[in-house]
Amino acid sequence: MKVNLEQVNKTFPKGKNDSLHVLQDIDLKIEAGEFVSLLGPSGCGKSTILNLIAGLDHPTSGDVYVNGQKVKGPGTDRVVVFQQGGLFPWMNVLDNVTYGLLLKNMSKKEAQEKAMEGLRMVHLGNFTKSFPHELSGGMKQRVAIARSLVMDPDVLLMDEPFAALDEQTRIILHQELQEIWEKTGKTILFITHNIREALTLSERVLLMSTRPGAIKNSFTVQASRPRDPSDSVLVQLEKRVMSELEEEMEKVLKEEFGDGYRLKTSAVRDRNREHMGDHI
Amino acid sequence: MIVIVSTWEIISKSNLFPTFMFPPLLIPNDPGGVTVLSTFVNGLISGQILEATGVTLSRLLVGFAIAVVLGLTFGFLISRYKWVDDTLGFFVTALQSIPSIVWFPLAIVWFGLGNISILFIVAIGATWTMTVNSSTGFKNVPSLYLNAARTLGSSGFHLARTVILPASVPHLISGLRVAWAFAWRAIMAGELLGGSGGLGYLLDMGRSLQSMDLVLSIMIVIGIIGTIMDNQVFRRMERSVARKWGMGA
């Protein structure tokens, strides 16, 4: 077992005496080499779970274990790829990728060789001297992935890494991420709000309910790789996940717009019956 | 520029004021008389102005360096610890509103009339702006960069050096710029009141000798140095950061 969350709760203080219950009794287990997606509507606490595993945040109660060890703070065995990449704009691509390696007391030459290897894996071997602002969104995310991979982490945590990219770039990066996963056999936890993305990439999809966030259901994706979105298994699964996700969406929307809000309106149910029979 | 210079010349030659009060810039009012230009050139050749400039600049640089180091340190502490922010941070705002020359009497009593007193007011004049700017810069480092660095294994001093400092460079440059301006004001006031050597001292001499041509020459020197600093140092820093980060340019 690579990652193990036991009865994790998280509350954030809100105002003076109030608090926001974000995560409730989360039990989550990820096996070594597994590719797991965490799917849920925005605000359901999926990024909070990732931050807890990364050690950037601490649970209010419960424990987080990685490799059987309790998580106490950030560590290089769990590297995060952030939605906005998080590349340092004052460093060029190569320096960004070697940043973590040099912290491991690796010699400069060795670090650069390893970084080149990582950059070639994401097809950016020719952009070592470029600065992040000179790259496109997709290229930045490739660099961020390379920066994480060269650290050789036990668990790769990905926080909606492709959410800000255009559709074409995303499709290409989906393919490449699958290839990287098959090649390296890393354990990956992938956060997303995109059902198709979750189904295309992962072996297991965990659906989260919201307010407070909890794990609602788990779906195993038994489709052959490379995944094809028109695969009947995926299409069926997408429908099932969608209908469950809609319940959660409705809950959020009702909280925001009041109880009168319904995601699916019914003409029969909503018809005004006050004047029924007036014409008789 | 031409308009200003010719207006000045006309007023100077109109005999509204005595020549010593309103010396001509380029053309002497009477044969062999003083002009600002000739005083300026003679001052440069004789080394009087150059020497004084050297004295002032070396004081300025030392005081400024002290202010930058102190400002960065205070700024870092304020951004890092809440209680420092509540105490020192509040105090700094009050201190910043005190013109640094106000410290001079105190400095004279503490350090005597001389170099150290002048360094003291230069440093104290520039430190607070630097503190305010650097703490703002440090506080506004995006948490994304901090989190990214921390998951890659950085912490403590390494994190401060490799992430917090470079990420706040745009704030720091504007801090340096304002601090530099404050340092100039402080050093001129200090030297006027009690410095030996230096441009301020020369100014005071110009006043007592009633030679406004000297005073105006010194003003020109200060203007030139200010322009050079701004264009060659601060602008260049800003431009190189903008180019590297892909902002603006």
* Chain-averaged pLDDT of chain A: 81
Distance between the termini of chain A: 72 Å
Radius of gyration based on Cα positions of chain A: 22 Å
Helix content of chain B: over 70%
CATH topology of chain A: Rossmann fold
Mean pLDDT of chain B: 85
The structural domain count of chain B equals 1
Keywords:
heterodimer; A: 280 residues; alpha/beta; Rossmann fold; six-stranded mixed β-sheet; 8 helices; 36% helix; globular; B: 249 residues; mainly alpha; MetI-like fold; 11 helices
How does this structure look, described?
The complex is a heterodimer of chains A (280) and B (249). By secondary structure, chain A is α/β, with parallel strands linked by helices. Chain A has one domain (3-229): Rossmann fold, CATH 3.40.50.300. Chain A is built from eight helices and ten strands. In chain A, the strands form two sheets. Chain A has a six-stranded mixed beta sheet, sandwiched between helices. In chain A, strands 2-1-4-5 form a four-stranded antiparallel beta sheet. The longest helix of chain A has 26 residues, at 232-257. Chain B has 249 residues and is mainly alpha-helical. Chain B has a single domain (42-245), classed as Orthogonal Bundle (MetI-like fold). Chain B contains eleven helices and no strands. Chain B is elongated, with a radius of gyration of 23 Å. The chains are: A alpha/beta (280), B mainly alpha (249). Chain A binds chain B through residues 54-56, 74-76, 78-80, 82, 84, 86-90, 99-100, 103-104, 131-134, 147, 151, and chain B through 144-145, 147-155, 158, 162-163, 166-167, 169, 244-247.
List the helices and strands and how they pair.
The complex is a heterodimer of chains A (280) and B (249).
Chain A lengths: L2 E12 L3 E13 L4 E5 L6 H9 L6 E6 L2 E2 L7 E4 L11 H11 L4 H14 L15 H13 L5 E5 L7 H18 L2 E6 L2 H7 L2 E6 L4 E7 L11 H26 L9 H4 L10
Helix pairs in contact in A: 2-3, 2-4, 3-4, 6-7
Chain B lengths: L1 H12 L22 H11 L1 H33 L1 H15 L7 H8 L3 H25 L3 H9 L4 H12 L1 H26 L4 H10 L3 H34 L4
Helix pairs in contact in B: 2-11, 3-4, 3-6, 3-9, 3-10, 4-6, 5-6, 6-9, 7-8, 9-10, 9-11, 10-11
GO molecular function, one term (chain A): ATP hydrolysis activity
Pfam families (chain A): ABC_tran (PF00005)
Keywords (chain A): ATP-binding, Nucleotide-binding, Transport
